[in-house]
Amino acid sequence: MALDLTLPKTGVTTFGGLYTELRANFNGINAMFTLPSWTNVASISGWTLTATVGYTMDAFGNVILEGRATAGATPATTLFTLGSSYRPAAPHARQFPAIAHYDGSPLYLNSRKLVTVNYDGTVVASSPVGGDIVYFSAISFKAGA
User: Fold this and answer.
1) Which of 12, 112, 124, 141 is the 20 to 30 A CA-CA neighbour of 87?
2) At a CB cut-off of 8 Å and minimum separation 6, what does 93 contact?
3) pTM, 2 dp
């Protein structure tokens, strides 16, 4: 969507006509920044969803994840699979330090534990153990790149 700021507008001779043209441009810009609906993840084997987990894509092709999940005693490594238009391009994967683990000290992001988004759409936690928390809101990437 291109923003047309050329003045005077051809064929627009009244303030009302100029207002209508400016309003149409504003509506186009507003639509660019409105996120489409979220795709929610119903459940993750061995994990408790402690906030709604889901994903969407903005007008620029950036995939945005949201939510939080806590690992149970035997958490699965594959958390869920993204839809086909929400994936990185093959053969690339994206890795994010989005897992925290409480070990008696203050909560911290452990850079040795990663969430990987593979080009086949699988979202995978590295070596999860009970008590790990995945912060999906820390994950955003360009689809198809």
Assistant:
1) 112
2) 116, 117, 118, 119
3) 0.72
